[in-house]
Amino acid sequence: MSKHILVTGGNSGIGLALCKLLIKNHSCYVYLGSRDVSKGEAALKIIFEEVPDKSDKIEVIQIDVGDDQSCKSAAKILMDKKVKLYALVNNAGIGGGAKTEVIINTNFKSPKRVTDALVGLIDKSEGRIVNISSRAASITAGTFYPYGG
After folding, report:
1. pLDDT per residue over 67-78, tens digit each?
2. Bridge-partner residues for 122, per DSSP?
3. What predicted TM-score, i.e. pTM, was given to this entire model?
4. Residue 13, by phi and psi: left (phi above 0), alpha (psi -120 to 50) or beta?
5. What is the pLDDT of residues 28-45, one digit of tens each?
6. How many CB atoms lie within 10 A of CB 10?
7. How far apart are CA 99 and CA 5, in angstroms?
8. Among candidate residues 121, 113, 112, 104, the one with its CA nearest the CA of residue 145
């Protein structure tokens, strides 16, 4: 049975690379989280160019990590599919020329917002929450929190 993993910000950068790696080398089932579904679908095309035989191991899920209702809607979609997550990867982030309040909402508040919405779907015996950050956004490049229910 495949391990189900949701990666926020999966349509570009580290998130895209992680989604590709998880289906290519680890036979996971991946939910590629993207605020914009069309960008998520474009990311799938990039992944399928390299791993066309894994198209049944990945799908786009719309999730805007900066919006409470979007996070709850994504959780409901997964709950309706009876998904049990092995991992939640909080990867989505923003930088550069964005307004300070947008950066704080996305990079600081969003991991908690997403986790709060999805924590009930994470496998209590072996599930994980992984928070990824760039060096510019955090002193540590990533933090691993085992979830013990």
Report:
1. 999 999 999 999
2. 85
3. 0.89
4. left
5. 999 999 999 999 999 999
6. 33
7. 30
8. 112
